[in-house]
Amino acid sequence: MDFGMALALVGAGLAALMAGIGSAIGIGIAGKSATGVLSEKPERYGQMFIMVVLPGTQGFYGFLAAFLIMLKLNFFGPEGAITITTTLGWQILAASLPIAFAGLFSAIHQGKVCAGGILMTAKRPEMAFKAGVVYAVMVEVYAVLGLLVTMFILLKGINWPTPV
Amino acid sequence: MMLRLKAKALDFYTYPPIGGDDWRYGYAAARVRALQTQMIPKSTLVDMANAGTFEQAAESISTTEYIPVASKTLAELEQVLIAQRRSLREQFARLMIDNSIVKLFKTRDDFANMRLAVRRRVTDKAIGTDYSSQGNLNPEIFEEVFEQEKYELLGEHIQNAVEQAILAYYTDRDICRIDHIIDRAQAEYNIQTALKMKSEFLTGLFSIKIDLTNIITMLRLKFTESEKRKVFLPGGYIEIERLKQAVDTEYDSIGQLFYATPYYRIVSVGANYVGTEKSFLKAEQASENHLSGYLNTTSQITSGPQPVIAYLLQKEKEIRTVRLILTAKKNLLDKKMILDRIGE
Q1: How many Cα atoms occupy the beta-carbon half-sphere of B261 within 13 Å?
Q2: Partner of B220 at 20 to 30 A CA spacing, among A110, B61, B72, B334?
């Protein structure tokens, strides 16, 4: 394997790994709070569920970016993976960083916002969507922006060689 | 030295800072937030106080966890409430991740046990075994400890308190000295432990408690025209010199001395009431409200030990209030007196 391909794979790996770690931590934080409330108020399960799963989206964004890189590298085509230059490898690695970092940090902070929303829902269930979910979605926006930048670079910013 | 450094720092308006989040406590903080919604609301407590009979008062809380209190004797009622408190403390111990905090709160019972045991020891009564079993120390060792003077079995902080209390009693032959020495030792231990744990919340909590105790002590000294001045507890935010000065000030001017502190309202309202009505009721009520206000600030914390500790203290207060109202109802006390006691 040449150095360019190694860089591209590091990029794909980072996108999936870092966003995935962020989501795992975020869901962990929100999940702990939700189980605390549910142990006393199991009837609030429906309201809690959306706030627990929200920080999980970043992991999917990271996976999507990684999958797109592998697709563009023709991993799944009959001709096999394409050969890329070192410069192209760096470009792919750079493209993966927005979703990797935005995913990591936004998922953790979204988990904290969701935990706050879950606690508020324990006392004020009518505010679950208005404040709990809406505030968490505002954090989500920055993960989406990270994903968009990654996708723009991968789809429009890189001149991919055609498979031989 | 540490105590002195902390006491100088009066850089807050009403309540001291409570520290930040600790994400290990996500489950515990959420669980107590849900449990807080099951606490008895103030309106129900007022209904209980206004009820015509004990049975009607008990009926007001028939949908809560206090169900078995109806149609009980006072002794049975006491047992129900003790069981409630024990179960609350067990739950607190399960929810707290830092065992040192559980241990710290258990020392409240250790010091209370010691107060009783030392009194029995100096008045030559049997030490006995009828102590709270919810402390860190096993009450079964008390007889051996006091009869054979093996105070080292109590641990360093309790040992020092007990030895000083016994010595102080035999010096002055004043039983109140025992309470004062043990209160002082407990206050010092609490503050030092909180500082050692680097817990802003606990440091603030214990400092506020010390200040409120000192304010009530100051008013009592003034009311009884006592010459005692070494009874104030160290470790609070208010300088002891200010409290000493307040004892020698007229009731209507005491408040001004505390104008630059968070306790201005407590002191001015409390002192005026003592001066006019010869009662500490308003000062005690305002103190309770101030402490509750500090505990309520923990609602800003999403995850941390602060809400769990606040819940323990709020729930203990609720149990005390239920006990007060039902005992008063059993003894046919006046409604207004009960309402005055349970505060605003």
Answers
A1: 25
A2: B334
Residues of chain A contacting residue B37, judged by C-beta atoms under 8 Å apart: 41, 122-123
- Which chain B residues in 225-264 lie under 8 Å from chain A, judged by CB atoms? none
pTM beyond 0.90: no
Residue A112 and residue B110: Cα distance in Å, rounded?
A: 38
| A116 inside 8 A of chain B by CB | yes
Report whether B312 contacts B29 (CB < 8 A): no
Determine the residue of chain B that is closest to A38 in CA distance.
B31
With contacts defined as CB-CB under 8 Å, which chain A residues touch B31?
36-37, 39-40
Closest-approach residue (CA) in chain A for B26:
A33
Q: Helix, strand, or coil here: B58?
A: helix
* ipTM for the whole complex: 0.83
Task: Provide the residue ranges of all domains of chain A, joining segments of one domain with +.
Answer: 3-157
CA distance B74 to B332: 13
Question: Residue A106 to residues A27, A144, A145: CA-CA distances in angstroms?
Answer: 12, 10, 11
> Tell me, which fold does domain A3-157 have in CATH?
Four Helix Bundle (Hemerythrin (Met), subunit A) (1.20.120)
What b/e sequence results for A17-52 when a residue is b if at least 16 CB atoms lie within 10 Å of its CB, and e otherwise? bbbbbbbbbbbbbbbbbbbbbbebbeebeebbeebb
Nearest to A132 by CA among B210, B77, B123, B302: B302
DSSP string, B279-296: --HHHHHHHHHHHHHHHH
Q: Which long-range contacts (CB under 8 A, 24 or more apart) does B141-148 make?
A: B142/B113, B142/B117, B146/B117, B146/B120, B146/B121
Nearest-angstrom CA–CA distance, B313 and B297? 13
Query: What is d(CA B207, CA B42) in angstroms, rounded to the nearest whole number?
Result: 27
Give the C-alpha separation, B132 to B276, whole Å: 39
| B112's tokens | 């209370």
Q: Please indicate whether, in this complex, the C-beta atoms of B30 and A41 are within 8 angstroms of each other.
A: no
10-residue block means of pLDDT along chain B (344 residues)?
A: 49 88 95 93 91 85 72 77 92 96 95 92 86 90 86 89 90 87 94 95 96 95 88 92 93 91 93 92 93 94 96 95 90 87 73
Residue A158's contacts (CB-CB under 8 Å, 6 or more residues apart) are A72, A88, A91, A92, A95
Give chain A positions within 8 Å (CB) of B41: none
Residue B240 to residue B174: CA distance in whole angstroms: 23
Q: Got the DSSP string for B302-331? A: SSSHHHHHHHHHHHHHHHHHHHHHHHHHHT
Minimal Cβ distance to A40: which of B26, B34, B303: B34
